[in-house]
């Protein structure tokens, strides 16, 4: 089965529809599927629900889809770097479903494992728990969270072979693997496609069975917050 495609637009062909749920990988601006996000912007698909830890920044990442008003709802943990997100949310133009980071990651992983729901203590007694089923286990209260089953996943890896076996670098490994797992179709962009058999099996983070379409490209890799210290005087 062909997995390697020539461009992000080609890899998304035939998959997009208005109102779909998309799981997007990345942590801040680290390991985000830049090329696939640009292709979504160009496609004009709208009324999207995006499950992603972050909402990008103004003018980059998922921030581009917010600027074009293609996102109807965000399922996120942290959205503090995006002024347009804040404006749309406060004005009632954008729906928001807040998730603790660990809960969001587990909701994605659960969806990928075919698990429809799980109980967690995280969020008990807060607004996160409002409207959710509560259940006691061993004298402790838990809330029911549902697995995320996305129409498609868009993720980014460092290296992959042509079958989709992939390696993520450092922080990019936080959300990309669970996001990749929970989509009916997973589209992955990578910095380098290597020959099949060249990756050490013990170093593979994502088995190719989860990856349906694959592209290679050049990425900007923008830094969200550059923090440096003064050079010490000699």
UniProtKB/TrEMBL annotation:
Keyword entries, A-Z: Transferase
MF term (GO), any: CoA-transferase activity
Taxonomic superkingdom: Bacteria
InterPro entries associated with the record: 3-oxoacid_CoA-transf_A, CoA_trans_fam_I, CoA_transf_BS, NagB/RpiA_transferase-like
Similarity remark: Belongs to the 3-oxoacid CoA-transferase subunit A family.
Protein name as annotated: Succinyl-CoA--3-ketoacid-CoA transferase
Species: Celeribacter baekdonensis
């Amino acid at each position: 089965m062909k997995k390697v495609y020539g461009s992000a637009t080609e890899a998304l062909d035939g998959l997009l529809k208005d109102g779909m749920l998309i799981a997007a990988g990345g942590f801040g601006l680290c390991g985000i599927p830049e090329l696939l996000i640009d292709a979504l912007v160009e496609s004009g698909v709208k009324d999207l629900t995006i499950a992603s830890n972050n909402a990008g920044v103004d003018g980059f990442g998922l921030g581009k889809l917010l600027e074009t008003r293609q996102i109807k709802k965000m399922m996120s943990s942290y959205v503090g770097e995006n002024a347009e997100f804040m404006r749309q949310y406060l004005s009632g133009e954008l729906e928001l479903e807040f998730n603790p980071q660990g809960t969001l990651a587990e909701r994605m992983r659960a969806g990928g494992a075919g698990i429809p729901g799980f109980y967690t203590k995280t969020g008990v007694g807060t607004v996160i728990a409002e409207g959710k089923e509560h259940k006691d286990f061993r004298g402790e209260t838990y809330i029911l969270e549902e697995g995320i089953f996305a129409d498609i996943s868009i993720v980014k890896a460092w290296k992959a072979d042509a079958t989709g076996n992939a390696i993520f670098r450092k922080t990019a490994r936080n959300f990309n693997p669970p996001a990749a797992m929970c989509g009916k179709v997973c589209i992955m962009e990578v910095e380098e496609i290597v020959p099949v058999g060249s990756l050490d099996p013990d170093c593979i983070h994502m088995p190719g069975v989860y990856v349906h379409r694959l592209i290679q490209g050049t990425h900007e890799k923008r830094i969200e917050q550059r923090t440096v210290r003064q050079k010490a005087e000699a």
